[in-house]
Design a protein that fits this description.
alpha+beta; 2 helices; 26% helix
């Protein structure tokens, strides 16, 4: 299984919610949540264009994303 690195940014509580998510999307970012067993969720933003290109190139393959979170935990597998 492939493992691809992806740099993301942590999203503070004041940047969450429908209106803020829509603003992020208009600016080219993708709001997302990372969940873990026994861990609190982590709100992040992904670079939309870069993430879209990665998904398009995979064409149905299984992949493990290694998220380098700026302003959050050092590494997350998603």
């Amino acid at each position: 299984m492939k493992q691809l690195p992806l740099s993301v940014k942590s999203r503070p509580a004041e940047q969450q919610g429908t209106g803020n998510s829509n603003r992020l999307r208009r600016s080219g970012l993708v709001p997302a949540e990372v969940y873990g067993h026994g861990e609190s969720n982590l709100s992040i933003t992904l670079p939309g264009k870069e993430f879209g290109k990665m998904l398009a190139s995979l064409k149905g393959e299984n992949v493990l994303f290694s998220l380098q979170v700026e302003g959050g935990p050092s590494n997350v597998l998603a």
